[in-house]
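The passage that follows is intended for readers who have already worked through the single-chain material. We present the inputs for a multi-component assembly, then the predicted structure in tokenized form, and finally a short commentary. You are encouraged to pause after the input and sketch how you expect the pieces to fit together before reading on.
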Amino acid sequence: MTDDPENQGNDEFEFPPTLREKLSSGHPTPSVPAEFSARLLASAKVGYALRMRRRRIVRWSAVIGSAAAIIILSLLFLLPNHRSSPHLAQAGDVNHDGRVDILDAYVVAKAISTGGKLDPVWDVNHDGVVDQKDIDWIAAAAVNVTGNPTGALPQ
Amino acid sequence: MKRMVPVIFLMLGLLGGSAPEANRVDATQPNVRFAAFDVMIDSGKMPLAAYQVKIVATSGDVALVGIEGSDQSAFAAAPYYDKHAILNKQIIVAAYSLAGSLPTGKTRVATLMVRLGSSAKPDWQITLQVAGGADGKPINATASIVQHSGETHP
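Having made your guess, compare it with the prediction:
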């Protein structure tokens, strides 16, 4: 730090012009051959194109992957859940036709009335016995339209 | 204070009893009338042991208010239906019979009691979901709804 106000702002040192010329002549600017320059440029172009191609592939992969994920998720939510429906259809689907209807109740009712063999899986209310309550349970499931299967059970 | 307890319960009971019900039928409205429609199943020559139909009121101010069995002995008992669907416009009705003598041909299997809110004629769509014979196997049949005037709605 100096206290002389005249020297403030003159921190840059400059070589004299003659010295600069001499130093420049001793270290001339290297010249690059045009052929080498062209090869370098071509190589850079190829590398750039390759990088752009890879970037495009990554971008399209992300787009296609996202679209596939959206389609798969939509299908999972919109289509009926086939994984759980067989389990639900099993309860009451006595004749194994894939749905619960009045014929299932009829098969159980007829088996009970004629003293036929009763399959333990017909005990749909899980009270340990196949009886009229199971028939009513199956029939109630068959006619259910409000989502509340107790609506068709006898009072 | 003990004397007041029965009075309080009585008042609460009266208040509860007078509360409006969502499904109550207001028969005092003008133009409200009631009609009966018969559910018919025609199983041809095959004995009918069980049936299941879906009934939808497609137009008209219609509400189901009750369902009864038929005068045919095999299906005299009230059929199965979703009681929560009463007053709705669609319902599934089903019944089976263990009677020794099962009906053949066109049989009245149930009667719908209907509230009609206007003079407009109700339109029905009835779909036979399944009909079964005595062996519990599905049989070919047709379903229709017949008003007491004799009008048929297939």
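Commentary: The first helix of chain A runs from residue 17 to 26. Residues 33-79 of chain A form one domain. How closely did your sketch match?
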